[in-house]
Amino acid sequence: MIPHREILWNIPHGVMLAVYVLSGLCGAWILFWFWRRSRLWNRGSDAVGQLGWSAGAARLMEYLATHRTVRRDRYAGAMHALIFWGFVILLIATTLVGIQHHFEIVFLTGTTYLAFKFISNLGGVMFCAGIGMALWRRREVSRLLRDRVINAMLWGMMVLAVSGFFVEAARIARDFQPFEKWSWVGYALASGMASLGFTGEDVVPLHRILWMTHATLAIGFFIIIPITLLKHIFLASYSVMRPAGKPGILTVPVVPVTAAVDLEQFRKVDLIQADACLTCGRCAEVCPAEAAGKPLSPRSVVLGLRAHLDSPEVSLDHQVKDEALWSCTSCHACDDACPINIHILDKIVTLRRGRVAEGDIPDTAAESLEATVQKFNPFGRPNSARMEWASGINVPVAKEGEAVELLYWVGCSGAFDPAGREVARSVVRILDHLKIKYRVLGCGERCSGDPARRLGEEGLWNGLAKKNQQSFSRHQVKTILTQCPHCFNSFKNEYPAVGPMPRVMHHSQWLQEKIAEGALKLNPGASEKITFHDPCYLSRAGDETEAPRAVLDKMFDGNRVEMEKHGKKSFCCGGGGGQIWLDVRGKTRVETIRASHVEETGSQTVATGCPFCRVMLEAGRSGLPEGQGKWRVKDIAELVVENLPA
Questions:
Q1: Maximum Cα–Cα distance across the chain
Q2: Which residues, in sequence order, are CB contacts of 320 under 8 Å at separation 6+?
Q3: Cα–Cα dist 341/236, whole Å
Q4: Residue 68 and residue 450: Cα distance in Å, rounded?
Q5: How far apart are CA 638 and CA 460, in angstroms?
């Protein structure tokens, strides 16, 4: 006999009619739910710079093929790949059967049928294995929400897949055609049925019951898609397909926030992402605020927005608490960790904007914002004091209208913070050593606006951005050099949304460039063990992890060690997002946690490339238990100065 199968054998026409009707109703229900929900999503604004549909489709296909973000967690990556590819195989198999049946195009015969059965059985096993891994993981991994609905959904999917194998087994058990051995799972189950006396005509009633049970479960699967995490099949795909900018880099809001935030102040993609969230907890796992016991879980912010979509009559202020919002360090580790590209920082900052508009903001944050308005810096120092850091050294200030090839941007920390001033003086020492012509703006500098923007004062940031851009244009600046990753990120990634910008370089990149050119020669450093702390706005936002290491290796070749959390997975120092001024307390401190990471390396020095990080690591070092913290904190520029040839 030529291998083949009789489609819908043993299924009465009345049963099939009921299945078609119920399936149609399921489709209508799914469309109705998404239509009704889309009315809420559409209250959000269109996202500036959102990826187009064609480019988005290519991005989604690449993502589905590689599962690159999901695979960062090996277990979860394997689990999701098994579920996804198993489901795809089963969906294709069902579709092929439907095509042959409804269009009367017979192609599932002979060798094609044997391959079809083997692969479809493999897909079913993959799907069951993936679901089994998911169920086990929800027992073992603490970051996952303990949700009975999710567990019931997973068990239902498992029963659905297993029931399909039993339907196949009952069909095979009727006459045990030799070629059915290619249905290797079904054939094994059929042999078990036969041992229990279910074979030949005796199995026909059982087959019909099993088929109807399987069909009912399949219909139930589609019914629950919109009201369970299964909707991520569509919504997570959209989130991956149409990102609105790079995670961690804020975009100019289409709708200005002038009062309490509601759905209209968010982007459509933000609202869709709130429904797409899988509650996997990867964001919470990497959040420094949560690790320190602060009242913030990034997941709770996203789920709070989802709760508002479910109950729009309840104010968002009640869905997401103030203390959670002001705990964020804006390190955007959560954005980087999210497997479906949810931009959590954008949502937090949008909510902060609403609090600022209402005047509901911590006093220390309000003081730093007021100081920035009045004195152009969040430290509250007179702007006329911006050049005090250069006392005793010759630092050339750009004259009015003078063209500037290289502008050294000192920044507020470099001008006013004692440790930051040491870094600024070190950068100048290197510039002078290399006899490079440069200029600073002196008292013409204003804050880049990074702290204000991440605290939620968008208007202040916008005004500062325009004023600074006018200064750059007036001096025809070609390149901006800065040691502050926050200024670096603002100038390089966020200012272009307001107007054109010159080339921007972090001092680690500039130092690496000068070393590569042969202009900067360095003495070998002391034989001390050294580690590097990656600033969040240099590594994640700036995509720069190699330049500072190349500079350090030129001095400490062979003596540099890595902390467990480094590179783009670096742990925040705790100073970003306005925390230098906010200082929201938790059970411990973020900087103390990071200092303990340094301690674990046994290093004598920790290098960094950010003035905030330098201050916070010093504070964290002093907070370690007695006998620990016997290492020093240095900016890479300070270390370069220590190793300049005479």
A1: 102
A2: 300, 301, 304, 305, 351
A3: 8
A4: 31
A5: 33
| CATH number, domain 246-359, options 1.10.1060.10, 1.20.1420.30, 2.70.70.10, 3.90.950.10 | 1.10.1060.10
**Would you say 282 and 290 are in contact if contact means Cβ atoms under 8 Å apart?**
no
- Residue ranges of the chain assigned to CATH 3.40.50: 520-642
Contact in structure between 640 and 555 (CB atoms under 8 Å): yes
Q: Tokens 């044997």 map to which residue?
A: 114
CATH architecture entry for 520-642: 3-Layer(aba) Sandwich (3.40)
Q: What is the pLDDT of residue 583?
A: 79
Domain 13-238 belongs in CATH node 3.40.50.300 = no
Dihedral (CA of 221, 225, 229, 234) sign: positive
Where exactly does CATH 1.10.1060.10 map onto the chain?
Answer: 246-359
pTM metric for this prediction: 0.92
CB of 155 within 8 A of CB of 138? no
Task: Give the H or E element holding residue 123.
Answer: helix 110-140
pLDDT digits (tens, 9 = 90+) for 117-142: 999 999 999 999 999 999 998 887 77
| Numbered ranges of CATH 1.20.950.20 in the chain | 13-238
- Residue 645 burial class via C-beta count within 10 angstroms: exposed 0-12, middle 13-18, buried 19 and up: exposed
Structure-token pair, residue 394 = 């010759």
pLDDT of res. 142: 74
